[in-house]
Specification:
The protein has about 625 residues and is mostly helical. The chain contains 26 helices and 6 strands. It has 2 domains: about 5-95; about 105-290 and about 435-620, Neurolysin, domain 3 (Orthogonal Bundle), CATH 1.10.1370.10. The longest helix is centred in the first third of the chain and has 31 residues, at about 25-55. The structure holds zinc ion. Zinc ion binds near residues 374, 378 and 402. This is Angiotensin-converting enzyme.
Length: about 625
């Protein structure tokens, strides 16, 4: 026993026996917390190490080790929760920061459950689902060879692949990765709800929403719904414009009469990102091209160079370089000869010695350049809040963590910065050129809005038990039709589980709020850099005033309620759709006028195309 912990034990014994009740003594509570933090950090590190091993080399042994480490952490959190409840009246500590630390430590989620079998099963289900997604293959419709998701994704994105092949891949991927996780996800939802009830939450959706610390009387889902509704006019114009362009390329027979876009021709397996459609949908095809992938390949860019470009951007803001450990231990390309989880991710190892890593199966493309910045944003967050106590080492809310790298991406992808990187040769400053550039960004970000919202909204409904299990797939399909205006290319049934074919669903990732936040951050940082309009042209590269604002936000971690963190960077405490709408305003005006000119009626029917439509006419629709 160290001298410090001996002192602590004496103090605590004295406190409990003398007062005969729980202590609110700040010194005692601080000492207790320091000791807890030290042990907590070590166990967290073990979990992250084990999880890293099983993510970069999927095998049963690694999976078992990860589950064991997670179980150990759960048991520790539960015992410490019981101890702090016994020793302290922590909700009445006279120090706000310390009280918040205790509040965070008390939130142990499903660790509250003492049943080891349940804990193990819960972890097992999640890793099984991720493994199925990461290792599934489908038969190539032409060659018959088995291909992994990464190949499927690039075929879906290619304008040269036929519509028939895309349709086959669309279904086959869902057969290979959605159907097999259907029962697991059902069990996962039941178990998550059962476990979280012990922690006092009505269901897992409510627990999830608690991470956003809604204020008394605030209805989180209502707030999200209002934000989403505010964005719909922009999305509807974009949807109408893109549908019109797709109708010039594909036969009319594949488009349902309901106004939906069939999901397999959007260039993305889930219809969330449409940027691969840009070459044949952009407003001004004769303007100089912005083709980052092409130039990167011509100039022989390397994976390392992509990460260095991102590091350089953050450094230019005064945020510092990546650590040596980052460069030594990150896995930046697919490892040969092993199965790994290729969905890109960033990791904090809780060593207090700068051990932060990225795992990413990087390809030399513009898309991966954006993903690289996204992941580097997580690393910068880790790095800046490393000095905070472990319980404060997190994003102000989950949306904040996802928004940082994307905020930087908004600067990086401006024509001005692409020129600086040598990725754009044209020096055009014409309005048409900038509308093309803005359009490309809209295909990435505005197109994603209803997809991000759908994923969150759908999961909330499942966890709240509002959808009978035998309607889970039709619920997904119907919500997708309603919110995204995107339909299935082939009829679906309850044998299918299309949502389960999406990594974000099974891995609990959420992006909707981060889409709004990144535009809010971008606008505020640009304003700090002296820019007052045309935020789509603004890059904050090299601006120390913007950098200082961002740094202040990152350093605070979760030590502040996110409203205060937001206030630090933007001067407002409310998440707002306005900066995003401001950003895209010139494009929205242009495409709305164009839709009118082309006689496009924007919007879509509330219901999916009827079964009859799928069954009738050409057999290729089946
Ligand atoms: Zn992320």
């Amino acid at each position: 026993m160290t001298r410090r912990s001996l002192l602590l034990s004496c103090l605590l014994l004295a406190a409990v026996s003398l007062a005969g009740s729980k202590s609110t003594n700040v010194t005692e509570a601080t000492l207790w917390f320091e000791q807890f933090s030290g042990e907590h950090r070590i166990l967290l590190n073990k979990v992250v190490e084990a999880s890293w091993a099983s993510n970069t080399d999927i095998n049963q042994e690694n999976e078992k080790a990860e589950l064991a480490a997670r179980l150990q952490l759960s048991q520790f959190m539960l015992s410490k929760r019981q101890e702090m409840d016994k020793l302290f009246d922590w909700a009445h500590l006279g120090n706000e920061r310390l009280k918040r630390m205790f509040t965070k430590a008390a939130d142990i989620g499903t660790s509250i459950v003492t049943d080891e079998a349940k804990q193990t099963r819960f972890g097992q289900l999640r890793s099984d689902m991720i493994r199925i997604q990461s290792t599934a293959t489908v038969e190539h419709p032409d060659t018959g060879e088995p291909i992994p998701l990464s190949r499927v994704v690039s075929l879906m994105a290619s304008p040269d692949v036929s519509e028939a092949v895309k349709k086959a891949l669309w279904s086959r991927w869902r057969d290979a990765s959605g159907r097999p996780v259907k029962q697991m996800y059902e069990e996962y939802v039941d178990l998550a709800n059962e476990m979280i009830k012990e922690a006092g939450y009505a269901n897992f959706a409510k627990y999830w929403q608690s991470w956003y610390e809604p204020k008394e009387g605030q209805d989180f889902e209502q707030v999200m719904a209002e934000l989403f509704n505010g964005l719909l006019p922009l999305y509807k114009e974009l949807h109408g414009y893109v549908r019109h362009a797709l109708m010039q390329k594909y036969p009319a027979s594949i488009f349902p009469p309901t106004g939906h876009i069939p999901g397999h021709i959007l260039g993305h397996m889930w219809g969330g990102r449409w940027d691969d459609l840009e070459p044949f949908t952009k407003p001004f095809p004769n303007e100089p091209q912005i083709d980052v992938t092409k130039v990167m390949r011509e100039k022989n860019w390397t994976v390392r160079q992509m990460f260095e470009a991102s590091q350089d951007f953050f450094a230019s803001l005064g945020l510092g370089n990546m650590t040596d450990t980052f460069w030594e231990k990150s896995v930046l390309e697919k490892l040969p000869g092993v199965d790994m989880v290729c969905h890109a991710s960033a990791w904090d190892f809780y060593t207090d010695k700068g051990d932060f890593r990225i795992k990413q199966c990087t390809e030399i493309t513009g898309h991966y350049l954006a993903v690289t910045h996204h992941e580097m944003g997580h690393i910068q967050y880790y790095q800046q809040y490393e000095k905070q106590p472990v319980v404060f080492r997190g994003g102000a809310n989950p949306g904040f963590h996802e928004a940082i790298g994307d905020t930087i991406e908004l600067s990086v992808m401006t024509p001005g910065h692409l020129r600086k990187l040598g990725l754009l040769e044209s020096d055009s400053e014409s309005d048409e050129f900038y509308l093309n550039s803005l359009f490309l960004m809209a295909l990435k970000k505005a197109a994603y809005l209803p997809f991000g919202y759908l994923i969150d909204n759908y999961r909330y409904k499942l966890f709240k038990g509002e959808v009978p299990k035998n309607q889970w797939n039709s619920e997904w399909v119907n919500q997708r039709c309603q919110l995204m205006g995107v339909s299935s290319p082939v009829l679906r049934s309850e044998e299918d589980f299309d949502a389960g074919a999406i990594y974000h669903v099974v891995a609990n990732v959420e992006y909707f709020l981060s889409l709004l936040l990144q535009f809010q951050f971008h606008q505020s940082l640009c304003q700090a850099a002296g820019v007052t309009e045309n935020f789509h042209k603004c890059s904050i590269y090299g601006n120390s005033a913007a950098g200082a604002k961002l740094k202040a936000l990152l350093e605070s971690g979760t030590s502040l309620h996110w409203e205060e963190a937001l206030f630090k960077i933007s001067g407002t405490r409310q998440i707002s759709a306005k900066p995003l709408l401001d950003y895209f305003a010139p494009l929205q005006a242009y495409i709305a006028a164009k839709n009118k000119e082309n006689g496009v009626s924007v919007g879509w029917g509330n219901n999916c195309p009827p079964d009859d439509w799928y069954k009738s006419a050409s057999p290729s629709r089946q």
